[in-house]
Structures are given as C-alpha cells and as structure tokens.
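Follow-up to my earlier ticket, as requested here are the two runs.
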Amino acid sequence: MHFPEQKCVFVHVPKTGGNFFTRCFLRFSGDSMVTSGHQDGTDRFELSGDATKTKHQTLAEYSELIGPAFADYTAYAFARPPVERMISLYYSPHRWMREQEGGGFDLDARNEPVDLKEFEELVSLNKSISDLLDAENISGRLEVDQTARHTSGARVSLLDFADLRGGLEKFGRENGFDLTDMPAKKVNSSSVNDPMALNAGQMDQINKIVMNSHHGKDQQFFAKDTPKGFFETLSGWFRSKS
C-alpha cells in the first residue's frame, strides 16, 4: 500500500494482519480496493494505485516503480514467526472456498490435520518475509521493532505481529493518522481454532519442513525466540482466536 504524502509504503506479508491494516489505513493511502470473482472486499480483495499493482507487492517492486524518490521512504511490514505463519496460511479461508452451484462461495473449514505433502508444496511456492522485503539488500540486522536501511536508501521498519494493535498504532502515530475509530475485529482469520491440537502428532515434521525451506531464514527476525517458547506462543495465539 502506497502513502505518497507520507513517503511510506506497507508491504503486505500474507497472514500478518495485512487485511486488518488495510481496513484501518486504506482511506489515507493513494490506493483503491478492487474485487473480482470470490473476493468480498473484506477478507479477500486486491489493491490498485499508481505504484501499487498487487496487494502483496514486494519492497523491491515498490522501489522500482517509485524510482529514486524511494530513497526518502520508509517501508513498513509486520513479521510473524515462519512456522506459525505457514500453518496459518495452510488454514487460510481463501484456500478452502468452494463455489456453490446456485452462486456464491462456501467455506470448507477443513478441520483436520495438515497434509504434509500439500503443506510442503505450499511452503515451497510462497514467498518468505525475507523475499518480500528484499532482505539480501538490507544492510545491518533487521529484527522486529527495529529499523534498517535498504540499498535504495529507504528505511525498513519491521513491526511485530504478536503486538498487532501496537504496531498499527505506531504506524499511525509516525505518519500522523488518526486511529481513534480503529476497527475492533480482525479479519481473514484461519479456518480452524486450534491447529496445535489437530497437529499434535506431527509438529516436529511441520517445523522441519518450514525451517529447512527458504522460510527458515525468517527466524532471524525473532532471534530471542526459543523452540519451546515458540510452540507455547503458537498454541496460545490460536486458542485466543477461538
């Protein structure tokens, strides 16, 4: 999402609260929401603007489209631990929507354990946070709640999905946006409430699939996390959404 007056962009990493971010800030941006097919304009939609060609546009793509002026920009994104994010993506509503014969779409909740082969394919086909932020071209160490510098000159500010509301407030505060009417409800939540319970017997395999993939490097954004603490956090996060 592009905010030309504030000279900033938001890089929407899938399953990190980006749709909720859009509900809060679209009215301040230079972009418009567009829908087609099964998209409902709340959980599923696209964005379009002078420098925004797709909702999940990368930092490198923004840099190329905006040009030399991007050196004065700040790029914001939310980060979420890679295993947690990939599980959430697997159970994301858009993956289980089925078109009904009489028109419209129905959501198959898919309240069953992860199919490991299908999960591994999903992990391999989707971009990591590092890919979306062009991390290879960021100097210095980038961690949640910290900033670093992209080779374009732009600042990169990484917000913590674990404190989504705090990150939204920080973005609003730094860019002069009034969020007194911030929506209370998150959107596009995963289609099951407790994937930890569903997948209790295969979390080791799930963890290995993600951490041995290109997503594994995203754990660098959460250097202080331990495996035990991570799985406790993951289980608690999903239970809190039930």
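Run two:
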Amino acid sequence: MTSTLTAPVREGEWLKAGEPALTPADAAVRAELVQAVRVLHQLGTLQNPYSANASVRLPDSPGHLLINAKGLPADIGEQDFGVITLDGDLVAGKLGPGVRQVLQMHILAYTRPEVNAVIHTHSTHATAFALAHRPIPANYEPLVNRGQTRDIPCAPYRARNNGDLGASIAGLLAEHPDTKAVLLANHGLLAFDDSPMSTARLVATIEETATLEIHAAALGGSKPIAP
C-alpha cells in the first residue's frame, strides 16, 4: 500500500496522506473495528472516548495497521482512520493530534503474531488499578474464559514522549508472554486479541472485573478460582 502523496502533509495539528485503497478483506476488518467501538459505547466502557484509541492489522497489507485518527467517539466512521507501517509512518488517511504519542504502544503489541487488534482505554475501574500500580487478579471466571488466565500486570510508569514507555511495555510483554492486556501505571489499559470484536469484549470484561474486584475488597477480597 502506498500513499497518493509523496509524504504526509500537516494541516493544523492533523497529519494527512492520501486516501486508503483497501482490499475487501482490509475494509472488512475496518468495519469490524468501527462496530467494536460502538459495542464498547453500548456497554458503557468508553467513559472518556477521546482518551481512547484502537487499531487493527490489515490482512492484505502486510506490515500495515489501521489506527483511529482521534479518539473513539460513538459516531466514529470508516473515514476516521490512518494507515501506518509497523515503523509508525503514516501512508494513507489521517492521524489526529496526539495520536503519534500512542503509536508505539500499539505497534509493540503487534510483535505477537496472534495479535490482530489493539484497544487502549482509560476506563474508570481498570485505570484505578493502574493508578494504584496494582495488577488486576484473574479471579473472575468470564475474564479467564476470554483467555486472560493470569493477573493483568502493570507496567512501571514512564513518559510517553521519549520512548521510555515503549521500553516499559516491551519488558512487561516479554516477562508475561501469555497476557492479553497490560495496565500502564498512572495512565490506563492496553488490551489485544485476535480480532477487533474479541478485543472489545476483552476490554469490557476487564473493566467489569476491575469493578467487581473493587466491590469484593469490601468483603475481604476476591478469591482464586478453585481447581
């Protein structure tokens, strides 16, 4: 895939390139990503949609990802995305203000071949665990059934703008090769799975788990699933 422009151009705070020329398979995963965002809104998981972002691997465009231009509003459309390389270069579509700062965390998740979609949110209760630098226990059966069989680890806090956050996430992913999500200390949640819809459902289940964990704390805390 190549841009119709020789290089991206900046219009105000937006970075824009040529229109994406997607194959039917690529367009299908884009449509699924849009639907996944709408499902998260229906479930009430995107309390602050403009602090969230999502991406998907393009099946017919090796080495390229589709990522949202700016936030995940309820009326997000298929035009609200940019196509980037795994080096973070924009080749089609558009990127909104601040999106470049989060590209690295998405790209790192795609180093796992089974990952085809990534969603980052600041959902209230999951982010509470990130603020407390505490992992989310994998004691809630629906979370385990979604493939998150271990506690969701928390990456140490690092600044986003200088590459340190990427190193922190990379280290955590290497240490926990079986996790489908990581908490970003003092920041939010990063979740990843094999499709946009499965990732959205994972994000919703993580937020549900975090909510229940906070309630369970008043009753002495959650307990591990019995063997």
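The only thing I checked on run two: DSSP finds six helices and ten strands in the chain. Let me know what else you need.
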